[in-house]
Specification:
This protein is mainly α. The chain is built from eight helices and five strands; from the N terminus they run αααβααββββααα. The strands form two sheets. A three-stranded antiparallel beta sheet has the order 1-3-2. The chain has a two-stranded antiparallel sheet with strand order 4-5.
């Protein structure tokens, strides 16, 4: 059964376990156990039975997705804006990563009253895939999970479950 995220408790657990979780994921990345991808699929299903994203929305409050050209075209059309107007109003180009990202946080499309996305049906691909728990080749996303473990209770819970099943 899904539970509301107790954000204060989550932050305390992160402070206490972040280094160990990141180290654990680093070991998994260097020496992936057999069946890792199948295990990730199973754990993903379990995690979403437990974690209620709408009670958290920390990703939308403290992170920014990257916006692809396709995202920009789709979202600007949905909003009835030109792509240029959309970019000028909401995005900034990060030269180091060569990515379009939000100018501010929380995300301009997050409704803070109910933690719902106002453009959910056309949201960026990065948002639609977040937190990327069951990618086909999980080992290629370990670096993403190492980052997300401190922002996303679902990622945190995934790593907890991995640690219960894969001893290294």
């Amino acid at each position: 059964m899904q539970k509301q995220v107790n954000f204060r408790s989550f932050k305390q657990k992160v402070r206490h376990n972040k280094k160990a979780f990141k180290k654990y994921l680093g070991k998994i990345e260097k020496d992936p156990p057999p069946g890792l991808d199948k295990m990730a699929e199973k754990i993903d299903a379990e995690v979403w039975q437990e974690v209620d994203c709408l009670s958290c929305a920390n990703c939308c409050k403290s992170m920014t997705p990257t916006f692809t050209k396709t995202d920009i075209k789709r979202i600007s059309a949905h909003l009835g804006m030109t792509q240029e107007a959309f970019v000028d109003k909401w995005l900034v180009y990060e030269k180091t990563d060569k990515d379009w990202v939000n100018k501010k946080q929380p995300c301009q499309f997050l409704n803070l009253d109910d933690n719902k996305c106002s453009i959910y049906e056309v949201r960026p691909a990065d948002c639609a895939g977040f937190p990327h728990l069951k990618k086909k080749k999980m080992v290629e996303y370990i670096h993403v999970h190492q980052q997300n473990v401190e922002y996303c209770p679902a990622t945190y819970r995934m790593v907890e479950k991995m640690m219960e099943r894969i001893y290294i």
